[in-house]
Amino acid sequence: MESSNVFVRWRPLPPTQLNTPEINPVHEKHRGSRVSISISTSPPSPANRAWKSGPVFTQVFEPTDGNKAVFNTVVAPILPQVLNGDSCSFFAYGHSGSGKSHTILGYDFEEPEDFGLCLAAARYLGEELKDSNNASHGGSASLELGIGLRMYELRGNTAFDLLNNHCKCYIRQGYDGQTHIRGETEVLDGGRVRVRPIVTKGCWSFDDFRRGVLRGLELRASGRSTVHDESSRTHAVLELEIVNRALLEAREAVVERESELVPVAKRATDIYIEEQMKGFVKTDDGKFVLNPEYKIDQGRIDDAEEKKAEFEKRVRDAEEHIGHVFRSSGQICLGGKLVFVDLAGAEYYHGSSLSTHGSRPLPSPQEQKEGRQINTDLLALKEVIRARASKKPRIPYRSSPLTMVLRGHFEARGCKGSYSAVILTASPAADQYAATANTLKYGNLVGMAGVEETDRTV
After folding, report:
1. Measured in whole angstroms, how far is the alpha carbon of residue 163 from the centre of its chain?
2. In what residue span(s) does the Kinesin motor domain sit (predicted)?
3. Are residues 290 and 426 in the same domain?
């Protein structure tokens, strides 16, 4: 059952802007504990018209609420679902500089009170898994539970693996209808060809996890936006999955068996083509007829195909072994996922908004192109969340690379359910009124579908 939840987090004004005029927000609770927000400026301005949302927001966090308060309200209540094998996703949306990265990642990686949602969740899960490991598994290292970390960023149609030296990866839809992210092709000894998925780092302690995240963040791209010079210009995706060593080894075995199949399959194809070319000749009138001087060696073709079938079976056996690991583990939490997405800053390149920030230079054509792609991704994400909350028969996952990649989490196979939440990060500064209003309008549209569905079921 998909649940649509939209939270609002007002960031405090930075020390350098304490005397900056502020937006006037008014929060009002409605039936079902949903909250509406109205915003305006004093004095009123024709450029900054007052606006009011519907009763769509789950909760509003004040500027004085720290990361711990957000975690306790937004993420902590959902973690039992992850420990039950479900998939849960959290998105931070807002314009550049509104506090998305601070919310998802935090800026203090030492003090638990200031951990972003991702680190706080990993710390919580680590403690729960430690208790589980101490209570069972008979000391078997292969069954020890830990957190598998995948960390990558999306820029346009390309993904970059932040735990594998920023390796360029490609987003493709497979024969199974699922979206896969694969790295560059590696040519190995013996003609083997290996194409790795996004790297999963097994973390068996919280310190392992923290070090992995810090290494990944060092490689994340940033650039100049209309707000500041170190804006995140990519969508950062952090996937946390409950794993054990047996599961990671089983998945690695599939990659290796696939690499072994490549030269064998290629040889079978080459032999077939070679025999066919020898077995037929082209006549003067352009037709192909049997070559009377050569008899196709069907036995040679059959031997190559038999060898290919043998290696194909090895791949299938390796894939089936993954399922066996899940079935035999006795660990209901195995495969449970948490996905945190630090979305790129939403930008609004509409006429005068280009010069909203005074002395800041106008974005270059390339930066505007990036901004348009980011906005396309964000609009596509909104429509997917709305379509799922409204239980529409068709979900527009293919509208953007971002939603294609996230499809696997929204529809995680083997899960009993899924949960998603959007955290809107908003600035109270009056000179950010247009950007803040657009952020709230986005959340209003996302949350409205969930309210409409609730009303239909009452």
Report:
1. 15
2. 3-449
3. no
Q: 65 and 425 in contact (C-beta within 8 Å)?
A: no
**Alpha-carbon span 262 to 28, nearest angstrom:** 62
97 is in an annotated binding site: yes
Let me know: does 105 contact 357? Beta carbons within 8 Å.
no
Quickly count helices (H) and strands (E) in the chain: 10, 19
Q: What's the predicted TM-score (pTM) here?
A: 0.87
User: Domain for residue 457, yes or no?
Assistant: no
Residue 424 parent element (H or E) = strand 418-426
User: Known binder of ligand: residue 101?
Assistant: yes
Cis peptide before 401 (omega within 30 of 0): no
Helices (H), 9-144: 67-70, 79-82, 100-104, 117-135
45 closest CA partner among 441, 430, 437? 430
Q: What tokens were used for 394?
A: 């068709």
Same domain, residue pair 97 and 184: yes
DSSP string computed for 382-412: HHHHHHHHTT-S---GGGSHHHHHHHHHHT-
Contact 117, 340 (CB under 8 A): yes
Q: Is 190 annotated as belonging to a binding site?
A: no
Choose the final residue of a domain: 275, 306, 323: 323
Q: CATH no. for residue 433?
A: 3.40.850.10
98 is in an annotated binding site: yes
Burial class, 320, CB count within 10 angstroms (exposed 0-12 / middle 13-18 / buried 19+): exposed
Run of H or E including 249: helix 245-279
Query: Is residue 27 part of an annotated ligand binding site?
Result: no
**Mean pLDDT per 10-residue run, the chain (458 residues)?**
78 83 92 90 85 94 95 96 93 91 90 94 95 73 92 90 92 78 86 89 96 91 49 84 96 95 95 93 88 92 97 97 93 94 72 43 72 86 85 87 85 64 94 92 83 51
207 lies in the same domain as 62: yes
> What per-residue string of b and e applies to 251-274 under the rule 16 or more CB within 10 Å gives b?
bebbeebbbbbbbbbeebeebeee
User: What radius of gyration, in Å, describes the C-alpha atoms of the chain?
Assistant: 26
